[in-house]
Amino acid sequence: MINDTIAAIVTAMGAASVGIIRISGPDAIKIGNLVYSGKAEFIKTPSHSVLYGRVYDQFNKKLIDEALFLIMREPRTFSGEDVVEIQCHGGMISVRKVLEIVLRNGARIAEPGEFSKRAFLNGKLDLAQAESIMDIVNAKTEKSLELAINQLQGALSILVNEVRYELLRLVAYIEADIDFPEDDIERLSNTQQLEKLVELSDRLINILRTAQKGKLIREGLNVIIIGKPNVGKSSLLNALIRETKAIVTDIPGTTRDAIEEYINLGGIPIKLVDTAGIRDSENLVEQIGVEKAKEFITKADLILYVIDIIEGISDDDKNIIFELLDKIPTIFLANKADLQYNQDNLKAIKSILGEKELILISAKENQGLEAIEERIAALFFEGSLQISGEAIITSARHVQALQGAYDHLKGAINSIQNDMPGDFVVIDIRSSWELLGKITGDTIEDDILDQIFSQFCLGK
Amino acid sequence: MDFVAGNYDVIVIGAGHAGCEAALASSRMGCKTLILTISIDNIALMPCNPAVGGPAKGHLVREIDALGGQMGLNIDKTNIQVRMLNTGKGPAVHSLRAQADKKMYQEEMTKELEAQDNLDVKQAMVEEILVENNIVQGVKTQTGAIFKSEVVILTTGTYLRGKIIIGDFNYIAGPNGLQSSINLSGNLKELGFELLRFKTGTPARIDRRTIDFSKMIEQPGDEKNLFFSFMSKESTPYNYSCWLTYTNEKTHKIIRDNLHRAPMYSGSIEGTGPRYCPSIEDKIVRFSDKASHQTFIEPEGINTYEMYVQGISTSLPEDVQLIMYRSIAGLENVEIMRPAYAIEYDCLNPTQLSLTLETKKVSGLFAAGQINGSSGYEEAAAQGLIAGINAVTKIKGKEPFILKRSDAYIGVLIDDLVTKGTNEPYRMLTSRAEYRLLLRQDNADLRLTEEGWKIGLVNEDRYKQFINKKESISREMLRLSQVMLNPNNQLVSNVLKLRESSLLKNSISAMDLLKRPEITYFDLLEIGYGDKELTREIYEQVEIQIKYEGYITKQQSQVERFEKIENRVIPQKINYLKINGLRNEAKQKLSTIMPISVGQASRISGVSPADISVLLVYLEQQRRRGVYDNEK
Q: What is the count of structural domains for chain A?
């Protein structure tokens, strides 16, 4: 709890061109070394010095970023513990990727206020500062409770709970055999245990793989902004993130790359994607055609469809809208409503949409944004926003727990293959079960005994 | 007429397995001790199964022994069969189990108590705990005798308001039909204690001469020379077998047909029974698809025809019991000598105790054994020992003796009881121990004897033997790491071939060779690299430490992490209700349990990790303000 190593992105989300990941705790240097690729001897580097290096994805060996590693040994650090800070460039995507690699190498994601909490516990902050930390910690209590409840209903929890239950049954078999060696209970052979473990680890790796492919949304709902060129998609994106990162001009197709931004909308984590220009200067709707658009759209959990109320609704719009209706939750937006527009345009749009709600906005003037937020929140909480058969891994913490659980199952499989007795095998299975419990929020020791006694008829 | 009958440092109420250990510990540690029992004839009575040990329970006995307790020595002197269970599994769960001659067990323990310096044994029924200003003063018996003392240890087992139930018949009694203790239970309530009502049961005892053993499977003991005590050197001459047989569809039909006469189902039992010790009617109902249940027929001793029917405890009426037992293969003509019964009794909600087993409400009042909601002779003895030790540390003003979950099964047992409480009679299981790999029965002495010596319970003989063993182990470990094996040594190659182990390419140390799963210390002896002078115990230790090094180191680092938070002490005058940010449930629970460390706090059900964060920050704030400066 206070002896593990934590990590988090400490720079503001999306704001700067440099992102910093801070690692703090007894294993900070060790983990930093595992992430670092370079010429220097990381472990032996003196305190408070900087190394230049690269970070690679350990799975596919691809270069993620070049980075500066700032190594600081305790006690002269912010938190009073060993600290490594990794400075990357290249925006949020690579910063997040680096964080993920840090977590995979043994750090745990920091809770809100946790660096400060440690700093305080290690005598680095004064009492007045500490009071505000207390508030953060307190606030966290409520928030995490809320989050836990929301996640309990999520698809991820269902998947994880299934695996957990199977693990629990397996643990019960092994533990009952140890504690009641003379009772005539069903026992599992090594082969049966092995088969089960392989099946379960496959299930875990599948959940994790979908996360790797990016099909599965790690950080929230995948919200895609779609519309004909120059209807104001980038302006809307920027309005929503309240900063101007994408280049916005009056010339159609000036957005060169797909822009991704992470925002937190009333507690719902959202990945916002502006699709404009994703095929360079080609016009998504007109040139790639409805078929391509459909394929692209399948990746979305929610679509923000922007129509230019000055231009009115076009045939292309109509085609797309008919394809979208009833397939993927969509919010229709009529942009540029701050300007003078023809009421017939509005009528035409409404007649096409029928029952569907239309929100009038002005991305430029920040009008109607609240209505969008409310609508998204409403859809989310009424359960309309779900991902087709996939689980949402909501945070890096989950990815990490899944990875750990998977590693432990590998350990258990390894133990069986090395002919280790059940009491050794079960150590890893229990750890795996406990880690998965961190996702679903329940790790109650007594579960194991309950399971043993309900599964087997035991006793003198 | 009330009269003062004596003055003592410590009074133990009850002379079962908890009481005996408590009284011996406190008297051996130099306190003038009195043990009071309803009947001197029933000291160390085993009212249920005629066995000691088994998984986790055997570990407890080893730990009791390593600390200088009596149970291990006593069973080593009085067993009529021993078996090492779980030998096909890892060393951590190897478990010794002995069948006892019940009478002999009692006689030996009674002799030990009577011979003990500083200890008086008296027969009396205690009716009242004398308390003034929440401090214990002594006890008063049925006959008006007042014994004064600084500490009183309750070890009343199942006697408190005990009630025996056989079918629709029931009567007020302790185990085995003995006199139960009624008024003491009321007295505890008056003192403000919360009592629970638990239930347990025991099968019938049957006449050996009416059993057809030819229809059963014999289960003989292992070769002798297996001991619970690290001090025992000589086996008893007895090796009696147990016998395995099974219930069948006929048995189950008899039970189903008479279920309406079973008190568990007719509703006349109010107490909560243990899940690991269900009655046969429970088994039939809950596991209805099981076509048969096994039972071991176990001897109760060498001078009796009574045999114990393990696995078939029941509270069915006696007439049903008879036809039910007679439906089992080999028991067709069986005669019952004592019928099976269920027993209900009062016990304390153990969360009212601190980790020393002293009650939080009354200073100087301790409790141990079944009165704390546990079950089993070994669980009782372990608590008795700790209560006895802490009675002395309290009187002498010394540091309390608390074993952590990472130190011993005893630590797990007591922490579970007082921190989490229990809603059924609590039985020790190896799966309850987080650090099972380290808490082995083979290393109980290495873990605990030093502690036992420090508190003055371990005698010099035992301590010397322990020091010798410890030194031999480290010497041998060092030697094995230094001795190099030559790949050209023909003898070595022969043994390796025999064990299907790959041949050496380069010279390696004897230690590295021993790391191979297929190689044992005896192989080292064979190739001339072992030390013939050492005992089997040393071979065993060396082998375990070398073979499982990886796992052991991993678990040790877990323990280090665990102990860091375990060592974060919570001042006892903390007011949880005043801590902002703690949820209400956590405030209540923390105030009730009064944990001594952040670690203990984190195990209380209803206290979340977020609550612990709040608590840590609060403690640090208070420390900075110097609130606890005068408390150390």
A: 3
